[in-house]
Design goal:
about 0% strand; mainly alpha; elongated
Length: about 80
C-alpha cells in the first residue's frame, strides 16, 4: 500500500472520529450563560466548519493537503481530549 493511501485512510478514520464528536456536540442542549450568550453555538459552528475543511483537504488530490489534514485533525482530536479531562 502506498503512503498516500495510508495517509488518506488514516485521515478518514480520524475525520469520522472528529465528526462524531461534532454531531454529539450539536445534539447537546445549549446552556445559556450570563457572561457570553451564544458562545456555545458559535463554537459548535466553528467545529462544523473545521470538519468541512478537513473533508475538503482530504478529498483534494495533492499530498500536501492530505498531510495538512492529518496534522490538523490530529491536533483537533488532541485538543478535544485535553478539554474533555
Amino acid at each position: 500500500m502506498s503512503t498516500i493511501k495510508l495517509i488518506t485512510y488514516l485521515n478518514w478514520i480520524l475525520i469520522v472520529l472528529y465528526g462524531s464528536s461534532v454531531v454529539w456536540a450539536f445534539l447537546q442542549a445549549n446552556n445559556p450563560s450570563h457572561e457570553m450568550p451564544g458562545a456555545e453555538w458559535i463554537i459548535k459552528i466553528v467545529g462544523f466548519l473545521l470538519l468541512l475543511a478537513m473533508i475538503g483537504l482530504n478529498v483534494a488530490p495533492y499530498l500536501w493537503t492530505k498531510i495538512t489534514a492529518l496534522a490538523l485533525v490530529s491536533l483537533l482530536l488532541l485538543v478535544l481530549r485535553w478539554f474533555a479531562d
